[in-house]
Structure formats: C-alpha cells, structure tokens
C-alpha cells in the first residue's frame, strides 16, 4: 500500500496583480475625495453667504443645490470606499500569507486577523497596523534597516480621517442653522483632506510591500513559489 502523500506546505503567491488593482482603486478614492472636497466647499461657501445676511430665492436654490451635491458626493464616496476595501483586503490577505512563508516566526497573530482585525470593535484601532508591521518586517530585504515610519504615519492619518469623518457626519446630521451647516461643511473638508493624505500614503505602503515581496520571492533561495 503506497504511503500517503504529504500535505503541500505553504507557498508564495504573487501580490503584484492585486497590488496594482488596490493602487488603482486607492487612486479612485483620492479622485472621489477631491470631488467631495469641492462639494463641501460649495456648501461652506453658500452657508457663509447666508451668515452674512444673503436672502432670496437665488441663495435658497444655491443651498439646495449644494446639499444635493454633497449628498451625491457622499454616495459616490461610499461606493468607492467599499470597492477599494474589498480589493485591498484581498491584497492584504495575500501579503500576509506570503509573510508567513518568508518568516513564520515574525507573525505573532493568526492569519485570519488580516481581515478580522479591521472589523472587530476597538482592536481595529491598532491590530491592522500591527499585522502590517509584521508583514513589513518579514518582507524586507535581509540586512535592511528596520523602519516603520511610513506605516506609522499612514495609520495615524487613517485614524484621524476616521474620527474626523465621524465628527463631521454627526455634526451635519444635527444641523439646521446656517452657521451649524457651515461648521459641519468645514469639518467635512478637513475629513476628506485627511482621507486623501491617508489614501496617498496607503498607495506607498501597497507599492512598498508588493515590491519587497516580489523581489524577495525572486531572490530568495528555497522558498516554494506559486507565481
């Protein structure tokens, strides 16, 4: 009776395709956020005129148009964010699996945290950063200086954008007077600006990790590769 074949061990899979898709969708998020900043500014501008005493049908129509534009921008933002998040998480799971091949001892967290860490309340404030740092350390070239500056700055901006967005949306939902809408529009502009910066740095993180893993897979000896 032949001996059973051993179960296949872990192997590398290229993150390049998913990395490119994630970068493209992060670029889309930036473009949509720029449109949202414009919509926020239009709302901020018309409410500033109302605060200065402007009245009449023309300014009322401007306010209605500004609120409609802001609502459309919010809807497009939600769609772009969900699409980007799906592809980004697929890429993130791929690079986490590769990191487990490169250096299993560097990965202190179970692979499923690559997804679960983003959704579990409270721990999602630091677990994704921790997983990213462990992936980064396992993927960096042998002998390279260990630097987490890019990941730390990206994660800080991401958290700031989340808190700022929550504050802006909450304030906007409670507004009635022109000065309140004006303040909420200003807060939303800050939030969208922070999201643009966070998305730009996320692109650098994706490009950096993808490049390091691709180069390490090509250069490293004896690592099973399923490219």
TrEMBL record:
Q: Which residues form the DUF4328 domain?
A: 62-211
Residues passing through the membrane, by range? 21-44, 148-164, 184-209
UniProt keyword list: Membrane, Transmembrane, Transmembrane helix
One Pfam entry for this protein is DUF4328
What this protein is called in its record is DUF4328 domain-containing protein
Q: Does the keyword Ion transport apply?
A: no
Q: Coiled-coil segments, which residues?
A: none
Q: Which domain of life is it from?
A: Bacteria
């Amino acid at each position: 009776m032949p001996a059973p074949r051993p179960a296949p061990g872990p192997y590398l899979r290229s993150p390049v395709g998913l990395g490119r898709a994630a970068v493209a969708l992060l670029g889309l998020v930036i473009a949509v956020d720029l449109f949202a900043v414009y919509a926020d500014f239009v709302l901020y501008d018309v409410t500033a005129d109302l605060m200065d005493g402007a009245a009449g049908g023309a300014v009322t129509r401007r306010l209605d148009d500004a609120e409609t534009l802001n609502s459309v921008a919010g809807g497009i933002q939600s769609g772009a964010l969900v699409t980007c998040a799906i592809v980004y998480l697929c890429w993130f799971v791929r690079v986490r699996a590769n990191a487990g091949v490169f250096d299993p001892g560097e990965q202190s967290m179970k692979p499923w945290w690559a997804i679960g860490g983003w959704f579990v309340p409270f721990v999602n404030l630091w677990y994704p950063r921790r997983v990213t740092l462990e992936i980064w350390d396992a993927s960096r070239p042998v002998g390279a200086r260990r630097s987490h500056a890019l990941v730390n700055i990206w994660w800080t901006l991401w958290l700031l954008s989340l808190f700022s967005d929550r504050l802006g949306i909450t304030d906007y939902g409670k507004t009635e007077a022109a000065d309140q809408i004006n303040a909420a529009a200003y807060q939303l502009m800050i939030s969208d600006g922070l999201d643009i910066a966070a998305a730009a740095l996320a692109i650098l993180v994706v490009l950096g990790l993808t490049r390091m893993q691709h180069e390490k897979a090509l250069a490293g000896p004896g690592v099973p590769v399923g490219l």
